[in-house]
Amino acid sequence: MKRLAIVLACVLTLSCFTGCGDKAASSEPQIEPATSGPAEEKTEEATDSKEAAEEVPEFDTEIEKTLYEASKMSDEELYAKAKEEKEKTVVYSTTSLAATAIETFLAKYPDLTIEMSDIGEADMFTKLSTEIGSAADGADMALLQNAYRVNNELISEDLLYNYFPESLKGVVDEKYQDPTAILFVSKLIFMNKSDASVEDLKNVWQLTEAAYKDKIFFKNPADEPVGMNFLIMLTSDEWNKKLSDAYKSYFGSEWNNTAEYKSCAYEFLDKFLANCNYTYTADGGICGGIAEGEPGSIGLFVFSKLRTNEVARANLQIAATGNDGAGIEGFAGFMYPTYAQVCADTDTPYTCALFINYLLSEEGGAAWNNADNMGTYLSNSSIALVPDSTGLDKEVDFWLDRCVIEDGEYLAANYADVYEYIASRIN
């Protein structure tokens, strides 16, 4: 009551002053009130900044909200939450080495239960699209490849949710944080150099010349989704420009659309595919076939095949490091990510989050980053590559600068048109 009386008294007093305002104005100069001083502006800015920092996104589901909150937790906090879930976590994986990561994960977090199902790519998408949201006892999370299908069939349909830890945003490139890429696999261009007189590969446009007809061995892209994705990515603005630059370097003039191609990349695809040979259906076959085959023949296959093939290491030149170390202009191959995603109906979101943190760590990444492996690279750039026994491999940044990388959004937007163009040129 006292407070109310004081307020009323102040209001009455101010009313009296207001009533005398005209008379005061005739004898005293009018002073304009200040709009806002520097101190007030600072306070407002600080308040706005704080509100922006504390602003929490709106979520359609409780799982999305949980994953967002989990992204800000420490591993210790996640472990405590994961132990409360008391459910088994099932991981579908296209990489069998995930089993090794699970084994070491459980040694570190013994109160949790994780099981892995090693599933091929075709079955992966069928199972996830039919099981998630149904009564089926399916996966809680997935480690999977093929950026186009991941984006177009699962993420866009809200069947998979992304999780990425706040603590690692400075060491994983932003473009690989959503969807979360845990590692990359490389497929590189190799040439049989068993005859030293064979000219080095200096530019990808060499591969469009008639001299390479049927001498470029590549898995049929109609049968291998990551190979198709690679070819489609060449039509993106980034790689079309690189192909245009390589064209100018090789032919000595700017690319001129005399043949009415949609872009420089389309001309490259037309002529490159005309020279491809799909005799071999597996990467191991391509590696062994060109290593023991005709000098000057070309192969595009996973780098890891060189680790166990001494003949290949002796006879094949890596296009990225040939040409007296200058490498090949244009591109040296392609890389495709393995993504870690959480299923929309999981009962164990905290365990999934903790396992993804582990996969992005040095300890968890050791399942792939070790002396017995090559051609596989962690997305966490703060973790150094463990050299393999051949000594041929390089850090991930070396390959990211030279290889075509999948972009799920670009693929989803352009897949149909470019696929048709490529399919019509596969012999």
List keywords for this structure.
427 residues; alpha/beta; D-Maltodextrin-Binding Protein, domain 2; 2 domains; 17 helices; 12 strands; 14% strand; globular; disordered N terminus
Walk me through this protein's architecture.
By secondary structure, the chain is of the alpha/beta class. It folds into two domains: 62-183 and 336-405, D-Maltodextrin-Binding Protein, domain 2; 186-335 and 411-423, 3-Layer(aba) Sandwich (D-Maltodextrin-Binding Protein, domain 2), CATH 3.40.190.10. The chain has helices spanning 2-19, 21-27, 38-54, 62-70, 75-85, 98-108, 121-131, 147-155, 225-233, 237-251, 264-275, 283-291, 310-315, 349-359, 362-365, 396-400, 408-423, and strands at residues 89-93, 114-118, 141-144, 160-161, 181-192, 216-218, 276-277, 298-302, 316-318, 333-343, 376-378, 403-405. Strands 1, 2, 3, 4, 5, 6, 7, 8, 9, 10, 11 and 12 form a twelve-stranded mixed β-sheet that branches. Strand 1 (89-93), helix 6 and strand 2 (114-118) form a beta-alpha-beta unit. Helix 8 packs across helix 17 (408-423) and helix 9 (225-233) crosses helix 17. The protein starts with a helix and ends with a helix. The model is unreliable at 1-43 (pLDDT under 50).
Short recap of the structure:
It contains 17 helices and 12 strands.
**Content of β-strand:** 5-15%
Summing up helix and strand content along with how strands pair, one would put the structural category as: alpha/beta
CATH class of the largest domain equals Alpha Beta
Main beta sheet: strand number and arrangement? Answer: 12 strands, mixed
E-strand count = 12
Distance between the termini: 92 Å
How many discrete domains? 2
| Helix content percent band | 40-55%
Q: What is the CATH architecture assignment of the largest domain?
A: 3-Layer(aba) Sandwich
- CATH names the topology of the largest domain as D-Maltodextrin-Binding Protein, domain 2
Uncertain runs are: 1-43
| Helix count from the secondary structure assignment | 17
Radius of gyration: 30 Å
The overall average pLDDT, rounded, is 89
The succession of helices and strands, N to C, reads HHHHHEHEHEHEEEHHHEHEHEEHHEHEH
Q: Identify the CATH homologous superfamily of the largest domain.
A: Periplasmic binding protein-like II
Gross geometry: globular
